[in-house]
Amino acid sequence: MQIKEFIGSTVLDKNANVVGKVDNVDFDTETGKIETIALTLQKNIFTRDELEINFDDIQTIGAYVILNKEIETEVEEEAEEAEAETVEIEIEEDE
Hints:
The chain is α+β, with helices and mostly antiparallel strands and 95 residues long.
């Protein structure tokens, strides 16, 4: 696989959750080994964050880049917070 094919690949964490896409690759110019990859994390339509992952945290590279660790994104955190908040509504009927 060439670097230009690697950039834009979808990245999954160890639980097969989509984390983001490969945005950039840093490698050692002497050895040619990849040191880190930069991921673009889609927070919502208008905002994006970047996360840097060490090459040691990559389990496999193929159709997807699969990490050997879990990455919790802000979207997942918000979903967990929404589940944790319970609102009780009482509806009164008109007689």
